[in-house]
Amino acid sequence: MNFVVALQAEACPLIDHYGLKRSSGSPFRTFENQNHRLVISGIGTIRCAAATGYLLGLLPSRNEGLVNLGIAGHGQLEKGSLFIANRVSLDSPKKSLYPPQLLKTSLPTSGLRTSHRPEEQYPEPIGYDMEAYAFCSIAHQWLTREFVQVLKIVSDTPAEPLVNFNAKEAQTLVENQVSAIDEFVHLLQGMVSELAVPSELASLSQKTRSLHHFTATQSLQLEKLFMHARSLDLPMEEMEALLNRSSNAREIIHALDQKLSPRRSLS
């Protein structure tokens, strides 16, 4: 599993729990072992976007899980609560992303708004942070969206506002939730293994994107169609022939969808 974390204090419990070691020669503080990687980004969208891009460059394939973990304010949940972000929005300009929620977990879900400065008023019953939107917007360009998740621990609330928060508490808040975080990580890793795209299909997807321009929406559509093709046992030769006959992204998506339609009816 792979993590992007803003602060060293938030990272320390994960580093200890997974036995991660510091990597040398990295532009960001990076810790890893055979199964996990963690990058400390620093606070804010620009730093988080850069760190996420850097971590994506370390991944051996697109079949990887990626989690943004950290503290966040919240307008409703109690301090210390761990939640999954099911909507990640940007304060300015106003945009939203929706990390798909396929895992069966007891953790609460909540909207999360990313702002350029700390939120002290909590105007809505949602979470507030300074990194998650940047994390998702970069990660979604490379990984299957289901593999990209945001976990936050409530650090401040209307009853216990940010002005009273001691930064040293961040480590304790994460330490208290390590078991729940680890359980979520195991569930996510299991889903990644189940939905992993075979290397030859991943190569075909990469080749297709390099030959034609795909918008973000079209890239997501192509990704889902490739996953459907795999689950419906469409031969690779038929896929390659179909892609070679298409001259642009729209034609590829339409042709592949039409090709899979009869197989969906029989499945």
Protein described:
This protein has 267 residues and is of the alpha/beta class. It folds into two domains: 2-195, Rossmann fold, CATH 3.40.50.1580; 199-266. It is 43% helix and 20% strand. It has helices at residues 8-18, 45-58, 132-139, 169-175, 178-195, 199-211, 216-231, 236-245, 249-266, and strands at 2-5, 21-22, 29-32, 37-40, 66-74, 82-90, 95-97, 109-114, 127-129, 148-156. The protein has a five-stranded mixed barrel.
Brief digest:
The chain is an alpha/beta fold and 267 residues long. It has two domains: 2-195, Nucleoside phosphorylase domain (Rossmann fold, 3-Layer(aba) Sandwich), CATH 3.40.50; 199-266. It contains nine helices and ten strands.
- Report strand order across the widest sheet: 5-9-8-6-10
By CATH, the superfamily of the largest domain comes out as Nucleoside phosphorylase domain
Structural class: alpha/beta
CATH topology of the largest domain: Rossmann fold
Number of strands: 10
Helix content: 40-55%
Per DSSP, what share of the residues sits in E-state strands of 2 or more residues? 15-25%
Biggest sheet architecture? 5 strands, mixed, barrel
Top-tier CATH class of the largest domain: Alpha Beta
Structural domain tally: 2
Identify the quaternary structure here. single chain
**Order of SSEs:** EHEEEHEEEEEHEHHHHHH
Q: Unreliable runs, pLDDT <50, ≥5 residues?
A: none
Give the CA-CA distance, first to last residue: 32 Å
Structural shape? elongated
- For the CA atoms, what is the radius of gyration? 20 Å
- Count of helical stretches: 9
Which architecture of the largest domain does the CATH hierarchy give at level 2? Answer: 3-Layer(aba) Sandwich
pLDDT averaged over residues: 92
